[in-house]
Design brief:
The strands form 2 sheets. The protein has a 4-stranded antiparallel sheet with strand order 4-5-6-7. The chain has one domain. The protein contains 2 helices and 7 strands, in the order βββαββββα.
Length: about 100
């Protein structure tokens, strides 16, 4: 299963899964992973919450902001153990909409 499908991906972020593991990579960085049940558990908790900062079994999401062309743009940062990735807020919302 692919969580991100795009022909235009300026952040170079790719997230995909097999039956048990979600893999995440950005540009040419090494691929990181986490258990699929933790990834999807956080998303279910995030969708029930009215908060952008959510934690589930060590996996976290946090709202951050980045100035792009002089405009402060919302970003979502996900982290697990010793890695973290930042993506557009709309990308995170798209991923969340694909998890039941």
């Amino acid at each position: 299963m692919n969580y991100i499908r795009s022909t235009f991906n300026p952040k170079g972020l790719y997230i995909w899964a097999d039956e048990d593991v979600v893999y995440i990579t950005k540009n040419s960085e090494p691929t990181n992973s986490l258990p699929k049940n933790i990834f999807e558990g956080l998303i279910r908790k995030y969708k029930k919450s009215n908060d952008d900062d959510v934690q589930f079994k060590g996996f976290e999401t946090k709202e951050v902001w980045e100035i792009v062309n002089g405009i402060d743009m919302p970003q979502t940062q996900i982290s697990y153990k010793d890695w973290k990735y930042t993506m557009w807020f709309v990308t995170w919302e798209y991923i969340c909409s694909n998890v039941k």
